[in-house]
Amino acid sequence: MIYRFGPAELDTDRYRLRVAGKEAHVEPQVFALIALLASRAPDLVRYDEIRADVWQGRIVSDATVAARISAARAALGDDGKRQGVIRTVPRRGLQMVVEVVTDGGAIRPVPPAGQTIRYTTSRDGTAIAWAELGEGPPLMRGGHWLSHLEHDLSSPIFGPLLQRLARGRRLIRYDPRGTGLSERDLDLSRVTVEDLADDMEAVADAAGIDRFPVYAISQSVPAALVFAARHPDRVARMILNNGLVRGSTARGEGETTETMVAMIRAGWGVAGSPFMKAVATLFAPRSTVEELDSLVGLQAVSATPDAAAELRRVIGDIDVTGILGDVTCPVLILHCAGDAIQSPEQSKLMARRIPNATFHLCDSPNHMVVPSDPIWADCLDAFDRFLEDAAPV
Protein backbone atom coordinates (compact mmCIF):
# COMPACT_ATOMS: atom_id res chain seq x y z
CA MET A 1 0.00 0.00 0.00
CA ILE A 2 1.18 3.51 -0.83
CA TYR A 3 0.17 6.47 1.34
CA ARG A 4 0.78 10.07 0.23
CA PHE A 5 0.49 12.84 2.81
CA GLY A 6 2.05 16.26 3.19
CA PRO A 7 5.54 16.08 1.64
CA ALA A 8 5.77 12.30 2.07
CA GLU A 9 5.10 9.08 0.17
CA LEU A 10 5.13 5.85 2.19
CA ASP A 11 5.27 2.50 0.37
CA THR A 12 4.65 -0.31 2.87
CA ASP A 13 5.19 -3.08 0.28
CA ARG A 14 8.64 -1.85 -0.74
CA TYR A 15 9.41 -0.52 2.75
CA ARG A 16 10.29 2.90 1.39
CA LEU A 17 9.72 6.42 2.67
CA ARG A 18 10.29 9.43 0.42
CA VAL A 19 10.01 13.00 1.70
CA ALA A 20 10.06 15.95 -0.69
CA GLY A 21 11.09 13.54 -3.45
CA LYS A 22 14.11 12.18 -1.59
CA GLU A 23 14.63 8.81 0.08
CA ALA A 24 14.34 9.06 3.87
CA HIS A 25 16.04 6.33 5.88
CA VAL A 26 14.40 5.63 9.24
CA GLU A 27 14.57 2.90 11.87
CA PRO A 28 12.08 0.03 11.52
CA GLN A 29 10.04 1.17 14.53
CA VAL A 30 9.83 4.71 13.15
CA PHE A 31 8.67 3.38 9.78
CA ALA A 32 6.08 1.17 11.51
CA LEU A 33 4.81 4.12 13.55
CA ILE A 34 4.37 6.35 10.49
CA ALA A 35 2.66 3.51 8.60
CA LEU A 36 0.26 2.88 11.50
CA LEU A 37 -0.73 6.54 11.77
CA ALA A 38 -1.18 6.86 7.99
CA SER A 39 -3.32 3.72 7.80
CA ARG A 40 -5.58 4.94 10.59
CA ALA A 41 -5.76 8.62 9.62
CA PRO A 42 -7.54 10.75 10.62
CA ASP A 43 -8.48 8.61 13.64
CA LEU A 44 -6.70 8.90 16.94
CA VAL A 45 -4.38 5.94 17.64
CA ARG A 46 -4.09 5.21 21.36
CA TYR A 47 -0.71 4.66 22.99
CA ASP A 48 -1.58 1.08 23.92
CA GLU A 49 -2.37 0.40 20.25
CA ILE A 50 0.94 1.96 19.21
CA ARG A 51 2.87 -0.26 21.61
CA ALA A 52 0.97 -3.35 20.45
CA ASP A 53 1.57 -2.62 16.74
CA VAL A 54 5.04 -1.09 16.67
CA TRP A 55 6.63 -3.11 19.49
CA GLN A 56 4.44 -6.22 19.13
CA GLY A 57 3.32 -5.98 22.73
CA ARG A 58 6.85 -5.84 24.22
CA ILE A 59 7.31 -3.66 27.28
CA VAL A 60 9.06 -0.41 26.37
CA SER A 61 9.65 2.78 28.33
CA ASP A 62 7.80 6.03 27.73
CA ALA A 63 11.16 7.57 26.80
CA THR A 64 11.62 5.01 24.02
CA VAL A 65 8.16 5.70 22.63
CA ALA A 66 8.78 9.47 22.81
CA ALA A 67 12.09 9.08 20.97
CA ARG A 68 10.46 7.19 18.09
CA ILE A 69 7.70 9.80 17.86
CA SER A 70 10.29 12.57 17.72
CA ALA A 71 12.22 10.69 15.02
CA ALA A 72 9.03 10.17 12.98
CA ARG A 73 8.26 13.87 13.13
CA ALA A 74 11.81 14.81 12.16
CA ALA A 75 11.71 12.47 9.16
CA LEU A 76 8.52 14.16 7.96
CA GLY A 77 9.78 17.71 8.48
CA ASP A 78 7.62 18.13 11.58
CA ASP A 79 8.42 18.74 15.25
CA GLY A 80 6.76 18.53 18.66
CA LYS A 81 6.08 22.25 18.84
CA ARG A 82 4.44 22.65 15.42
CA GLN A 83 2.74 19.22 15.21
CA GLY A 84 1.76 19.95 11.63
CA VAL A 85 1.78 16.28 10.57
CA ILE A 86 1.62 14.22 13.75
CA ARG A 87 -0.49 15.60 16.59
CA THR A 88 -0.19 14.47 20.21
CA VAL A 89 -3.41 14.21 22.21
CA PRO A 90 -2.10 14.33 25.81
CA ARG A 91 -2.40 11.06 27.74
CA ARG A 92 -4.34 9.46 24.91
CA GLY A 93 -2.40 8.97 21.69
CA LEU A 94 -1.36 10.30 18.29
CA GLN A 95 -3.21 11.46 15.20
CA MET A 96 -2.09 12.26 11.65
CA VAL A 97 -3.48 15.71 10.86
CA VAL A 98 -2.78 16.01 7.13
CA GLU A 99 -4.87 14.58 4.32
CA VAL A 100 -3.78 11.03 3.40
CA VAL A 101 -4.37 9.63 -0.11
CA THR A 102 -3.88 5.92 -0.82
CA ASP A 103 -2.66 4.37 -4.07
CA GLY A 104 -6.26 3.39 -4.79
CA GLY A 105 -7.32 7.04 -4.71
CA ALA A 106 -9.13 6.82 -1.37
CA ILE A 107 -8.86 10.04 0.59
CA ARG A 108 -8.49 10.06 4.37
CA PRO A 109 -9.51 13.64 5.24
CA VAL A 110 -7.84 16.08 7.56
CA PRO A 111 -9.42 15.89 11.04
CA PRO A 112 -11.45 18.90 12.14
CA ALA A 113 -9.61 22.01 13.22
CA GLY A 114 -10.23 23.74 16.53
CA GLN A 115 -13.70 24.89 17.44
CA THR A 116 -15.15 28.38 17.64
CA ILE A 117 -17.27 29.28 20.69
CA ARG A 118 -20.02 31.90 20.51
CA TYR A 119 -23.05 32.98 22.56
CA THR A 120 -26.71 33.34 21.73
CA THR A 121 -29.86 34.09 23.72
CA SER A 122 -32.70 31.65 24.29
CA ARG A 123 -36.37 32.62 24.15
CA ASP A 124 -36.48 33.69 27.82
CA GLY A 125 -33.21 35.65 27.66
CA THR A 126 -30.87 32.93 28.98
CA ALA A 127 -27.35 33.08 27.51
CA ILE A 128 -26.39 29.84 25.74
CA ALA A 129 -22.79 29.03 24.76
CA TRP A 130 -22.45 27.13 21.49
CA ALA A 131 -19.60 25.96 19.29
CA GLU A 132 -18.93 24.64 15.82
CA LEU A 133 -16.29 22.14 14.83
CA GLY A 134 -15.34 20.92 11.35
CA GLU A 135 -16.66 21.79 7.90
CA GLY A 136 -19.40 20.37 5.71
CA PRO A 137 -23.14 19.82 6.04
CA PRO A 138 -24.47 20.70 9.51
CA LEU A 139 -25.14 18.28 12.35
CA MET A 140 -26.70 19.45 15.61
CA ARG A 141 -25.64 17.65 18.78
CA GLY A 142 -28.18 18.10 21.54
CA GLY A 143 -26.93 19.48 24.86
CA HIS A 144 -26.98 17.07 27.79
CA TRP A 145 -26.54 17.14 31.55
CA LEU A 146 -22.74 16.65 31.75
CA SER A 147 -21.34 19.23 29.34
CA HIS A 148 -18.54 21.76 28.91
CA LEU A 149 -17.69 22.94 25.38
CA GLU A 150 -13.95 23.30 26.00
CA HIS A 151 -13.41 20.42 28.41
CA ASP A 152 -15.30 17.88 26.27
CA LEU A 153 -12.81 18.14 23.40
CA SER A 154 -10.04 16.67 25.58
CA SER A 155 -12.29 14.13 27.29
CA PRO A 156 -11.36 10.49 26.59
CA ILE A 157 -15.09 9.81 26.27
CA PHE A 158 -16.49 12.81 24.42
CA GLY A 159 -13.40 13.95 22.51
CA PRO A 160 -13.24 10.96 20.13
CA LEU A 161 -17.01 11.10 19.62
CA LEU A 162 -16.94 14.80 18.73
CA GLN A 163 -14.04 14.37 16.32
CA ARG A 164 -15.82 11.49 14.60
CA LEU A 165 -19.14 13.35 14.33
CA ALA A 166 -17.31 16.41 12.93
CA ARG A 167 -15.49 14.43 10.25
CA GLY A 168 -16.73 15.89 6.96
CA ARG A 169 -19.44 17.82 8.83
CA ARG A 170 -20.03 21.12 10.55
CA LEU A 171 -20.80 19.88 14.08
CA ILE A 172 -22.82 22.37 16.12
CA ARG A 173 -23.24 21.80 19.84
CA TYR A 174 -23.97 23.76 22.99
CA ASP A 175 -23.96 23.70 26.78
CA PRO A 176 -27.53 23.58 28.14
CA ARG A 177 -28.62 26.34 30.49
CA GLY A 178 -27.04 26.07 33.93
CA THR A 179 -24.05 24.05 32.67
CA GLY A 180 -20.62 24.49 31.11
CA LEU A 181 -20.03 27.91 29.57
CA SER A 182 -23.74 28.81 29.33
CA GLU A 183 -25.44 31.08 31.86
CA ARG A 184 -25.27 29.37 35.26
CA ASP A 185 -26.74 31.86 37.75
CA LEU A 186 -30.31 30.69 37.16
CA ASP A 187 -33.35 29.38 38.98
CA LEU A 188 -33.38 25.91 37.46
CA SER A 189 -36.35 24.69 39.50
CA ARG A 190 -38.71 26.21 36.91
CA VAL A 191 -36.99 24.80 33.82
CA THR A 192 -39.09 22.62 31.50
CA VAL A 193 -38.27 20.42 28.53
CA GLU A 194 -39.77 23.15 26.35
CA ASP A 195 -37.10 25.55 27.67
CA LEU A 196 -34.43 23.02 26.72
CA ALA A 197 -35.92 22.81 23.22
CA ASP A 198 -35.85 26.62 23.07
CA ASP A 199 -32.10 26.47 23.73
CA MET A 200 -31.61 24.14 20.74
CA GLU A 201 -33.72 26.42 18.57
CA ALA A 202 -31.74 29.51 19.60
CA VAL A 203 -28.46 27.77 18.69
CA ALA A 204 -29.82 26.62 15.32
CA ASP A 205 -30.93 30.16 14.55
CA ALA A 206 -27.58 31.63 15.64
CA ALA A 207 -25.70 29.10 13.49
CA GLY A 208 -27.87 30.04 10.50
CA ILE A 209 -28.98 26.48 9.75
CA ASP A 210 -32.52 25.97 8.44
CA ARG A 211 -32.73 22.18 8.00
CA PHE A 212 -30.35 19.71 9.65
CA PRO A 213 -29.99 16.28 11.29
CA VAL A 214 -29.77 15.94 15.08
CA TYR A 215 -27.75 13.61 17.30
CA ALA A 216 -29.09 13.41 20.86
CA ILE A 217 -28.30 11.24 23.87
CA SER A 218 -29.95 10.77 27.28
CA GLN A 219 -32.01 13.81 28.36
CA SER A 220 -31.16 15.75 25.21
CA VAL A 221 -33.43 13.23 23.44
CA PRO A 222 -36.75 14.65 24.76
CA ALA A 223 -35.57 18.21 23.99
CA ALA A 224 -34.77 17.11 20.42
CA LEU A 225 -38.17 15.42 20.14
CA VAL A 226 -39.95 18.60 21.26
CA PHE A 227 -37.97 20.64 18.73
CA ALA A 228 -38.68 18.15 15.93
CA ALA A 229 -42.40 18.07 16.70
CA ARG A 230 -42.46 21.87 16.88
CA HIS A 231 -40.47 22.36 13.64
CA PRO A 232 -40.89 19.31 11.36
CA ASP A 233 -39.60 21.37 8.44
CA ARG A 234 -36.24 21.98 10.13
CA VAL A 235 -35.21 18.49 11.27
CA ALA A 236 -33.96 16.26 8.44
CA ARG A 237 -33.48 13.17 10.60
CA MET A 238 -32.47 12.23 14.14
CA ILE A 239 -30.20 9.76 15.92
CA LEU A 240 -31.56 9.15 19.44
CA ASN A 241 -29.15 7.30 21.72
CA ASN A 242 -30.11 5.87 25.15
CA GLY A 243 -32.83 8.47 25.58
CA LEU A 244 -35.98 8.89 27.63
CA VAL A 245 -39.49 10.08 26.98
CA ARG A 246 -40.83 9.91 30.54
CA GLY A 247 -38.65 10.72 33.57
CA SER A 248 -38.62 8.81 36.82
CA THR A 249 -40.89 11.27 38.68
CA ALA A 250 -43.34 11.36 35.77
CA ARG A 251 -43.43 7.54 35.91
CA GLY A 252 -44.42 7.66 39.57
CA GLU A 253 -40.93 6.74 40.78
CA GLY A 254 -40.12 9.90 42.68
CA GLU A 255 -37.91 7.99 45.12
CA THR A 256 -35.56 7.16 42.25
CA THR A 257 -35.22 10.85 41.44
CA GLU A 258 -34.58 11.81 45.06
CA THR A 259 -32.00 9.04 45.54
CA MET A 260 -30.00 10.35 42.61
CA VAL A 261 -30.40 13.95 43.82
CA ALA A 262 -29.10 12.92 47.26
CA MET A 263 -26.05 11.24 45.71
CA ILE A 264 -25.35 14.38 43.69
CA ARG A 265 -25.59 16.70 46.67
CA ALA A 266 -23.37 14.38 48.74
CA GLY A 267 -20.37 14.38 46.46
CA TRP A 268 -20.78 16.12 43.10
CA GLY A 269 -17.36 16.95 41.65
CA VAL A 270 -15.49 15.92 44.82
CA ALA A 271 -12.31 14.03 43.97
CA GLY A 272 -12.44 10.52 45.41
CA SER A 273 -16.09 10.80 46.39
CA PRO A 274 -17.60 7.28 46.54
CA PHE A 275 -20.97 8.78 45.61
CA MET A 276 -19.75 10.24 42.35
CA LYS A 277 -17.68 7.19 41.50
CA ALA A 278 -20.87 5.22 41.94
CA VAL A 279 -22.76 7.60 39.64
CA ALA A 280 -20.00 7.43 37.02
CA THR A 281 -20.00 3.64 37.20
CA LEU A 282 -23.77 3.59 36.66
CA PHE A 283 -23.28 5.67 33.53
CA ALA A 284 -20.43 3.61 32.07
CA PRO A 285 -19.79 0.29 33.85
CA ARG A 286 -17.95 -1.04 30.78
CA SER A 287 -15.17 1.54 30.55
CA THR A 288 -11.55 2.14 31.42
CA VAL A 289 -10.30 3.75 34.62
CA GLU A 290 -9.34 6.83 32.58
CA GLU A 291 -12.85 7.11 31.15
CA LEU A 292 -14.48 6.75 34.58
CA ASP A 293 -12.12 9.31 36.10
CA SER A 294 -12.96 11.73 33.30
CA LEU A 295 -16.67 11.49 34.11
CA VAL A 296 -15.98 12.36 37.74
CA GLY A 297 -13.73 15.25 36.65
CA LEU A 298 -16.37 16.55 34.24
CA GLN A 299 -18.81 16.97 37.11
CA ALA A 300 -16.69 19.72 38.68
CA VAL A 301 -16.55 21.84 35.51
CA SER A 302 -20.01 21.15 34.07
CA ALA A 303 -22.24 22.38 36.90
CA THR A 304 -22.44 23.21 40.60
CA PRO A 305 -23.90 20.53 42.92
CA ASP A 306 -27.11 22.56 43.34
CA ALA A 307 -27.51 23.04 39.58
CA ALA A 308 -26.82 19.37 38.88
CA ALA A 309 -29.39 18.34 41.49
CA GLU A 310 -32.04 20.71 40.13
CA LEU A 311 -31.43 19.57 36.56
CA ARG A 312 -31.80 15.96 37.68
CA ARG A 313 -35.23 16.89 39.08
CA VAL A 314 -36.10 18.54 35.75
CA ILE A 315 -35.19 15.31 33.98
CA GLY A 316 -37.39 13.37 36.38
CA ASP A 317 -40.41 15.53 35.50
CA ILE A 318 -40.09 15.14 31.71
CA ASP A 319 -42.94 13.50 29.80
CA VAL A 320 -43.03 13.87 26.01
CA THR A 321 -45.03 10.76 25.18
CA GLY A 322 -47.89 12.90 23.84
CA ILE A 323 -45.84 14.39 20.99
CA LEU A 324 -44.13 11.29 19.59
CA GLY A 325 -46.67 10.91 16.81
CA ASP A 326 -45.86 14.45 15.64
CA VAL A 327 -42.22 13.59 14.85
CA THR A 328 -42.24 12.90 11.12
CA CYS A 329 -38.56 12.73 10.11
CA PRO A 330 -36.59 9.46 9.83
CA VAL A 331 -35.30 8.47 13.27
CA LEU A 332 -32.60 5.96 14.23
CA ILE A 333 -33.07 4.83 17.83
CA LEU A 334 -30.28 2.97 19.63
CA HIS A 335 -30.30 1.79 23.23
CA CYS A 336 -27.88 -0.30 25.27
CA ALA A 337 -29.52 -3.42 26.63
CA GLY A 338 -28.01 -3.10 30.12
CA ASP A 339 -28.45 0.67 30.56
CA ALA A 340 -29.09 1.29 34.28
CA ILE A 341 -29.84 5.01 33.86
CA GLN A 342 -32.64 4.84 31.28
CA SER A 343 -34.41 1.58 30.53
CA PRO A 344 -34.45 0.34 26.91
CA GLU A 345 -38.24 0.30 27.30
CA GLN A 346 -38.12 4.08 26.88
CA SER A 347 -36.58 3.76 23.43
CA LYS A 348 -38.91 0.90 22.51
CA LEU A 349 -41.84 3.21 23.30
CA MET A 350 -40.34 5.84 20.99
CA ALA A 351 -39.89 3.28 18.24
CA ARG A 352 -43.53 2.18 18.52
CA ARG A 353 -44.99 5.69 18.42
CA ILE A 354 -42.70 7.63 16.06
CA PRO A 355 -44.00 6.89 12.54
CA ASN A 356 -40.65 6.71 10.70
CA ALA A 357 -38.40 5.14 13.36
CA THR A 358 -36.05 2.17 13.36
CA PHE A 359 -34.76 0.59 16.56
CA HIS A 360 -31.52 -1.19 17.44
CA LEU A 361 -30.70 -2.79 20.80
CA CYS A 362 -26.94 -2.69 21.53
CA ASP A 363 -25.09 -5.32 23.54
CA SER A 364 -23.66 -3.08 26.25
CA PRO A 365 -24.35 -2.13 29.90
CA ASN A 366 -23.36 1.52 29.31
CA HIS A 367 -25.59 4.59 29.25
CA MET A 368 -23.23 6.28 26.80
CA VAL A 369 -21.08 5.01 23.96
CA VAL A 370 -17.44 5.12 25.09
CA PRO A 371 -14.38 4.45 22.89
CA SER A 372 -13.29 1.40 24.90
CA ASP A 373 -16.66 -0.35 24.50
CA PRO A 374 -16.58 -3.11 21.82
CA ILE A 375 -19.76 -1.65 20.30
CA TRP A 376 -18.08 1.75 19.70
CA ALA A 377 -17.01 1.22 16.09
CA ASP A 378 -20.28 -0.42 15.02
CA CYS A 379 -22.35 2.38 16.56
CA LEU A 380 -20.31 5.17 14.96
CA ASP A 381 -20.44 3.39 11.60
CA ALA A 382 -24.23 3.13 11.95
CA PHE A 383 -24.41 6.86 12.72
CA ASP A 384 -22.38 7.65 9.60
CA ARG A 385 -24.50 5.43 7.34
CA PHE A 386 -27.71 6.95 8.65
CA LEU A 387 -26.47 10.51 8.24
CA GLU A 388 -25.11 9.86 4.76
CA ASP A 389 -28.63 8.83 3.69
CA ALA A 390 -29.97 12.26 4.64
CA ALA A 391 -31.40 14.50 1.97
CA PRO A 392 -29.22 17.56 1.11
CA VAL A 393 -29.56 20.24 3.74
Written account of the structure:
This protein is an alpha/beta fold and 393 residues long. The protein folds into 2 domains: 2-108, Winged helix-like DNA-binding domain superfamily/Winged helix DNA-binding domain (Arc Repressor Mutant, subunit A, Orthogonal Bundle); 116-388, 3-Layer(aba) Sandwich (Rossmann fold), CATH 3.40.50. Helix content is 38%, strand content 19%. The chain contains 13 helices and 17 strands. It has helices at residues 28-40, 47-54, 62-75, 149-153, 158-165, 193-207, 220-230, 254-267, 274-283, 289-302, 305-317, 344-353, 376-388, and strands at residues 2-5, 8-11, 16-19, 22-23, 45-46, 86-89, 93-96, 100-102, 107-108, 116-121, 127-133, 138-141, 170-174, 212-217, 235-241, 331-336, 357-362. An 8-stranded mixed β-sheet has the order 10-11-13-12-14-15-16-17, sandwiched between helices. A 6-stranded antiparallel β-sheet has the order 4-3-2-1-8-9, with helices on one face. Strands 5-7-6 form a 3-stranded antiparallel β-sheet. A hairpin with a 2-residue loop joins strand 1 (2-5) and strand 2. The radius of gyration is 22 Å and the shape is globular. The model has no long low-confidence stretch (mean pLDDT 90).
